Amino acid sequence: MDLTQGSNKTKNTRAKKMMLWFGIASLIMSFGGLTSAFVASKTRVDWMADHELPSAFTASLIVIILSSLFVYLSKVSLRKNDKKKSTILFFLAVVCAAVFVSLQFYGFSQLIDLGYYFTGPTSNVTSSFIFLIAFFHLLHAAVGLLCLTVVLIMLLRDKYQSDNMLGFELAANFWHFVDVLWIYLFLFLVFFI
Q1: pLDDT class for 122, splitting at 50, 70, 90?
Q2: Which residues contact 147 (CB under 8 A, 6 or more apart)?
Q3: DSSP 8-state symbol, 44
Q4: What are residue 161's phi and psi, to 5 degrees?
Q5: In whole angstroms, what is the distance from residue 132 CA to residue 128 CA?
Q6: Domain boundaries in the chain?
Q7: Residue 67 in contact with residue 93, Cβ under 8 Å?
């Protein structure tokens, strides 16, 4: 397939999707580096192996999976030109995404209540890594929430149709990545602490 062929719209669509995938690939490498550093640091003498994860992180796992499911079902409805159902489902996805972000912040407060700190005399390398990994993901989830909110506004303004879904698809793919990334990070923290 010759990537230089096609209309300008086709080329533009292909370029935007390619840029998203390049961005996702760089994020995968970044989080891969963070989790590799986490594993390498487990050999330190000051490593604490008995850390517990906050319950809010577990709840947020369920909520972000639900959010991704609503995004997927909304996309299916939009492809069938059922715009009302698509908008309702996407609204539910945005609500779940907002709840996810809120639960992440609550998870940080639970970590502090458990006596774990990011820095300071009472912090340790283990809790610093947990804060860093969760916070770095939270930043990307916040960007994803912003993208989902923009798509919801565009849906409410009837800007997407079954044959014109590029912005929707880009935001959906990024959100699904954020979802899969949290599943990976959560399981990583559960099994490697």
Answers
A1: confident
A2: 170, 171, 174, 175
A3: S
A4: -130, 170
A5: 6
A6: 8-42+54-192
A7: yes
Cβ atoms 44, 125 nearer than 8 A? yes
Spatial CA neighbour of 155 closest among 94, 69, 97: 94
Contacts 24+ apart (CB under 8 A), 79-88: 79/162, 79/165, 80/162, 81/161, 81/162, 83/155, 83/158, 83/160, 86/155, 86/160, 87/152, 87/155, 87/156
Residue in 101, 114, 115 with CA at minimum distance from that of residue 59? 101
Q: What is the pTM of this model?
A: 0.89
Q: Smallest Cα–Cα separation from 87: which of 161, 163, 176? A: 161
Number of Cβ atoms within 10 Å of the Cβ of 183? 14
Q: What is the pLDDT of residues 138-183, one digit of tens each?
A: 999 999 999 999 999 999 999 999 889 999 999 999 999 999 999 9
Angle CA(134)–CA(22)–CA(143) in degrees, nearest 5? 40
The answer to whether residues 140 and 181 touch, using CB atoms and an 8 Å cutoff, is yes
- 8-42+54-192 maps to which CATH number? 1.20.120.80
**Residue owning tokens 């949290």:** 182
